[in-house]
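Attaching the record inline, Q. Sequence:
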Amino acid sequence: MDSIWNKTKAVIKTRMPGHSYRMWIEPIEFNNENNGVVVLSCPNQFSKKRVLEYYSDLILSEIQKISGKPCQIALEVSEKHLTCHSQPEISHQKPLFPQAEAQPSSGRFLRRDYTFDQFVVGGNNDFAYSASLALASRKKTQQHSLFLLSKTGMGKSHLTQAVGNHILTENPMEKVYYITAEDFSNEMVSAYQHDTIDQFKKKYRTGCNVLLLDDVHYLSGKERTQVELAMTLDTLYDSGKKIIFSSSYLPGDIPKLNDKLRSRLSSGLISAIDPPNFRTRVRILQKKATANGIHIPEDITQYLAGELTEDVRQLESGLIGITAKSSLLGAPIDMALAESVIKNIVRQRKLITIDGIKKLVCQEFNISHHDIVSASRKQALVRPRQIAMYLSRRYTDSPLQAIGKCFNRYHATALHSISAVEKGIRDNRSLQKQIEYLCAKLEEGVC
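Structure, as predicted:
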């Protein structure tokens, strides 16, 4: 029967995406056969649930074809993970998935839907996916750190958290710390203020097995934090711990970063995530529609994938937009409805320029073009200037240097301004509403 299982795996490998096969089917081993029940072993409980939910019918069908006789399959966790009370689970049973988000040992919650299984792999991100999965799976490799690089909305945070979710699923007691660079900096400052810096250092240097550090470009100009983080990374590297960084900028492009930290960030594998191609965009839309219980006609999916080309978040926005309008109007999701939601947004986004953004911001804040590019540090001018630079980064392909130059600033100042607005959006509901209003104006062409 062992040879039948190996043949079954070989067939299944040709019938599903390679990354899904490697993740869920390849680790399964034949255990025994008893009274027509083929017992297979999975590496952990989460794997068993996923296989039962998504792949049990395929496995059963292929085993029966190859063996030439009817049977049932049962899945169990391999003995090293079993307790004395554990029992195999028959394939027709449908397990319930946990509803709570995973809580790592420190830092922010991990989103439960940010798993490898929910990540759509395409030519734009397959290397980043494979590198993340290899690191999370603890496969024998010299890779101990990974730097995920992409613009906002491409999936780097999804992959970062998928590593944490995967590790915690296999070993819930693992010390996985998921935190943004900004939170790390704030925590360090607080530790100095409350004379608890020794506890802070111990926590990250000796109490951490896996460090997931998001948005490392926020460390620009924070010299004290950079020194502390560099020493922490030295300790983690020497101990063979796993580290994932994510950023919208290469280490060499982050301004006001000291050489030691820049070297640490650059020492591991660097993998860029590019915008998804058409086929990948179609699959992303299909997967998100299915996950949310939404039926989208195929021609509408193709239309959205053809028009929404910037990033995953834009795809999500388009999907939400057409389903919301359909629900509110009680209208079917057809091409006319989709075009009414998507066309103006796409057309206006292509026409948005930095000059147009400056004009709109000046109108809304009642300031002049001279004011927004002046050297003045008055708060009444600083915030509009920062917002304009944030919108320029969001809506144009201009690099930091070009954005800074348009406002008579260095690219380091542009990065600081963009970061300040991104932080403000998370912490300040009023600012979030203000940004949403300006975005709507830009997308409507009111500039």
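DSSP finds 20 helices and ten strands in the chain. Residues 60 and 73 are 6 Å apart (CA to CA).

More tomorrow.
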